[in-house]
Specification:
Number of domains: 2
Strand content: under 5%
Radius of gyration: 21 Å
Order of helices and strands: HHHHHHHHHHHHHHHH
Structural class: mainly alpha
Shape: globular
Oligomer: single chain
Helix content: 40-55%
Distance between the termini: 29 Å
Length: 389
């Protein structure tokens, strides 16, 4: 979300999203939230002026409004050019909740919480620049402070005062597992006891990728036995579709998804390049995961050992789950999941997701299935996306 907004804004001038006032950022997010229904019904078929008006919010300044009006609705990753009619109509204006879960599992939220805490104590950690101070203020105001009740970012209340618990609730309701690490203070947060965790998601996802890989291998096989089973892929896709769409009936998790993705995409954009706060912390590096690791080292916080693959998984799995929920793969489109064609952007995403998933989850996909017991609590129930140790 924010990384694509950053790229779009730079096309209009030298202003970065981190330089905006918090009210402008909030207004921009409200615009994206209000326009979400346009995306799934073909927003790009609307006249440009109508699309702009649909995204205009009172809190966004005129200059930012004018600059952003002509740009496509933001998305964290470039939309694949799908190989079937009507594919772009399924474009989503923000990432899937899996993006937020993968990013949060890296411990990025707690690492930057410690950064904020250190700057509250003084400047022993670093002397912040003007733009670094802007980042610190925006981050504290938007993602570590209670939000106005009417804000789309507001997930807390007297019923649930902890934003971590609110995101963890959404993760478990949609995926069956959530955050597996404590807050930056070292103390665990109080979780919500959800009654309907989506416990079938993880096993179905792994089984689907195993069948996809089996079909991919057999398509490339020119001799020997052929044990491809396209019907198994189709049935597993439909099962995954049912699990996800049932869990979010009537938009049950939509706001939690949007707010969670917004928060994690802010940090994703922060580590995509040597941004102002990265420079202030002298954490410059060539890759996002190395920047995150260097920031973690500066403040004495742990980073997930598979942070690289979690970030890669966030990038590849998010658009795949969006397309799955849109029903794109329920019919003839299922072939795109395993047909190796350079023009098939979906297969490129699948291949990247499989490679990242194998390392991050500790499961074997490119080969015979093996039992995975690393992420269970002894009862066989999955409690987290990946083990933190």
């Amino acid at each position: 979300m924010f990384w694509e907004i950053q790229r779009q804004m730079r096309a209009y001038g030298p202003v970065d999203v981190f330089d905006l006032h918090s009210s402008a950022i909030s207004g921009l997010l409200e615009d994206l939230w209000a326009a979400r229904y346009l995306e799934v019904s073909g927003a790009y078929s609307m006249p440009r002026e109508d699309r702009a008006r649909a995204r205009i919010g009172a809190a966004v300044s005129t200059a930012i409004r004018r600059a952003y009006a002509g740009a496509p609705i933001a998305h964290a990753q470039p939309q694949p050019q799908l190989g079937w009619p009507g594919g772009p109509a399924n474009h989503a204006s923000y990432d899937h909740l899996i993006f937020a879960l993968c990013m949060e599992t890296t411990n990025v939220y707690e690492i930057f919480a410690r950064v904020l805490a250190e700057f509250e104590r003084g400047t022993a950690l670093a002397a912040p620049s003007v733009r670094g101070l802007n980042w610190l203020r925006r981050t504290r105001e938007l993602f570590y402070s209670p939000q106005p009740p009417s804000s789309v970012l507001c997930l807390t209340s007297d019923i649930n005062p902890d934003v971590r618990a609110a995101r963890d609730r959404a993760y478990r309701l949609l995926f069956g597992f959530g955050i597996d690490h404590p807050a930056y203070t070292g103390r665990p947060f109080e979780r919500i006891d959800v009654t309907t965790p989506n416990n079938g998601f993880r096993s179905t996802l792994v089984a689907l990728f195993q069948e996809i890989w089996r079909n991919y291998v057999n398509i490339r096989n020119t001799s020997g036995p052929d044990d491809a089973d396209p019907e198994a892929v189709r049935l597993l896709v439909q099962e995954l579709y049912g699990l996800l769409t049932t869990a979010r009936r009537a938009g049950f998790l939509d706001q939690a998804e949007f707010a969670s993705v917004a928060a994690m995409s802010w940090f994703y954009a922060t580590i995509q390049e040597d941004s102002p706060i990265i420079n202030d912390l002298q954490a410059q590096a060539a890759t996002p995961w190395d920047r995150l690791a260097r920031v973690a080292t500066r403040v004495g916080m742990p980073v997930h050992p598979h942070a690289r693959h979690l970030i890669l998984l966030a990038e590849s799995l998010s658009p795949l789950l969006r397309l799955t929920e849109a029903g794109v793969f329920n019919g003839a489109g299922v072939d795109a999941l395993y047909v190796p064609d350079p023009a098939n952007a979906v297969w490129q995403l699948v291949d990247a997701a499989i490679n990242a998933l194998q390392v991050a989850m500790g499961v074997r996909i490119k080969g015979m299935p093996v039992m995975d017991i690393r992420t269970t609590n002894g009862s066989g129930r999955v409690t987290t996306l990946v083990p933190s140790q």
